[in-house]
Amino acid sequence: MQNRELPSITAAPAGDFYTPEIYWSQTESTIRISIRLTDVEDYKLTLTKGRILNFRTDKDEKTYSLKLMFYDTVQSMQHTSPGPDIRITLVKTKPIDWPRLILAKQRARNIHYDLANMAVADDEPKRFLQLPKELQDVDSDGDDGEGPMYHVTSDLDSDFDVDLPHDSD
C-alpha cells in the first residue's frame, strides 16, 4: 500500500540577513529596480558578468542582502539613494521585453512588478485583436477602417421572400 501523506513542511534555513522588497519595471531599453529600504546611506551594490546583481547593507543592526541573476544580460548600471529607496537603472543588451526579472521561473516573494511605473506606448491606439502593420490590408475604398467589418442582414431583407401557396392535405 502506498503512503499518501504529504512530506512535512520544512522552513528555509535560518539566515543571518534579511531580504529587502524590490519593485521593478521595464521599457524597451531599460530596467528600473527600486529596493525598498528607507534612509540607507552606506550600501554595496555590484553588477557581475552583466547579469548578477549583489546588494548588501547594514541598517538598524540588521544586515540586508540580495543576490539576483537577471533574465538576460545588461550593458550598464546606474544607482541612486534619494531617501525612501535605492533606485537602480539598467540598460538592456537586447531591446526585448523580459517576461520576468530573474532567470529562475519560480516566483520570488520579495520581487514585485511596479505597475505604477509600467511603460505604456502612446504611439497610436490599438484596437482589439489588431493585426500587425505588415498584415493589414490597405483600404482602397476610402474607408478609414473605423467602421465595423461586417454587414448586418435579417430575414426581412431577403431577396428570396416569396409567398408560397399553402399545401392542403
Automatic annotation (TrEMBL):
Its EC number is 3.6.4.13. GO terms for biological process: germ-line stem cell division. Residues 17-102 form the CS domain. This is RNA helicase. Transmembrane segments: none annotated. Keywords: ATP-binding, Helicase, Hydrolase, Nucleotide-binding, Repeat. PANTHER family: ATP-DEPENDENT RNA HELICASE TDRD12-RELATED (PTHR22655).
